[in-house]
UniProtKB/TrEMBL annotation:
Annotated PANTHER family: HTH-TYPE TRANSCRIPTIONAL REGULATOR (PTHR30537), HTH-TYPE TRANSCRIPTIONAL REGULATOR TRPI (PTHR30537:SF74)
Organism of provenance: Variovorax ginsengisoli
Coiled coil: none
Keywords: DNA-binding, Transcription, Transcription regulation
Domain of life from the UniProt record: Bacteria
InterPro entries, alphabetized: LysR-type_TF_proteobact-type (IPR058163), LysR_HTH_N (IPR000847), LysR_subst-bd (IPR005119), WH-like_DNA-bd_sf (IPR036388), WH_DNA-bd_sf (IPR036390)
Protein family (similarity comment): Belongs to the LysR transcriptional regulatory family.
Record's protein name: Transcriptional regulator GcvA
Span of domain HTH lysR-type: 6-63
Lineage: Bacteria, Pseudomonadati, Pseudomonadota, Betaproteobacteria, Burkholderiales
Keyword Zinc: no
Amino acid sequence: MTRKLPPLNAVRAFEAAARHVSFTRAAEELHVTHGAVSRQVALLEAWLGSALFRRSASRMVLTDAGRSYAAEVTSMLDRLAVASMQFAQQDAPVSLGVNAPPTFTMRWLIARMSSFQRQHPEIEVRLTTSLSTVNFHENGYDIAIRGAHDPLPGCRSDPFMTELVVPVCHTDLLERGRLRDPGDLRHHTLIRYATEPYSWPDWLEAAGERDLQAANTLHFEQMYFALQAAAEGLGIVLVPLFLVVDDIVAGNLCAPFGLLAALQRQYYANVPLSGKRSPAVRAFCDWLAREGRDTEDSIANWANSMGWSISAIAPPDLAVPQPPDTWTVPTV
């Protein structure tokens, strides 16, 4: 059966005019002239063979037939608009806002994002960086990644990776000698930064060198700059091992004391407590968990190859033990 449809532009013009009961306001909505709306309505009336409006010198009203027809047309156009919008959105990428610390984003997250994009091409990730207090309402992100000692209050906090903080430096400093045990740090420059998760006094106390005074200290605002200074051989910095393990394996950096007195906390994927987690949020959190496990496995394998045991490190809520007597110091 062949459909017998009226001219659709005329139907659209009539529907707007019927809603506003005004050709002028309909013309403004449709961005056409008053005369264009009038001609389209007249065309539809001729096609239908019935008057839709009753006009007088002072006002214009719908006829009974026009009022009934307008109700049906408005309903059908609304359904068409909804169906068209749903169809257009079904293949549109789902937007996911992720906020994370700057150095973590640059040195760990971005390097792994391609695998998430391959697995979930339908999700468009918007990455922002910040160290500020998590506030989903004001900042508009869906997931906030933070390193912390405990889950963040007011959030659902899923731990996905353990952060081990150890001293790191350029291999040249180790090769020059005088860096065989923590006491040798008195001959070196300690690099500090404002956002450090642990301070040098924290590590020195855990390593049994509470009163040690270093030869010099360099201060930076961000971890990224402090780490770059260490890579240039300017001193020794306390940083999360997972951020530098690739550089250590490549021989560009070293952990001169291994896992001795390693300090630790957790990295969490934080989402709002209110509301149900979307499929995109669940997918990203699951992916973070897998990537975190892979990173921890890589660190464990590297540590074992050096004769160090990750199992010697205490859980985050326990005191850090002293290393065993058989602890070995790397030579590279």
